[in-house]
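Structure representation.

___
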Amino acid sequence: MDSKGRKVGLVVVAAALAAGVYGFSQISSKPAAVSIKSKPHYIAPKEAPKPGFNWVTHVVDGDTIDVDLNGKSERIRLIGIDTPETVDPRKPVQCFGREASNKTKGMLSGKQVRLEADPTQDDRDKYGRLLRYVFLEDGTNYNEWLVAQGYAHEYTYNIPYKYQAEFKDAEHKARDSDKGLWSPNTCNGITK
């Protein structure tokens, strides 16, 4: 290569380095705002939800969902229930966990739900998830329905909650009827 070719090559390399340094200096230490529409598994709302309702954009597992709250994704942990684990990296998949997760995916993915806070409980759990009851469009309390169908245990965290009596009654009926995780053919109530 002649000296003219080397000079051109050096100029190109210098320009590339300068552009890279300039571009790198423009990188902010603040995280970029990410639209929830770019999240994996996000189900885009079809239209504006009914007044008082929100679109379910992702189902994490049987008792945790993501909803679109005014264009922002919020993770919701259902109050008063506990479904067997499927996604906790510290635990193996528990008995009836896949069934509970698949049921919630089938019932809630891409659907509109109404969320209800409980003044007897914290607004968020220690993981930052909103704590809510989830109601279907027909008025069904989905948290209670999961317990009644044997997909979840009634779960009281720390202090009693608004619908505790109803959830405990639903669990007793599911257990007495051998529904879901209470069946001797599945977990017989032992999901750990």
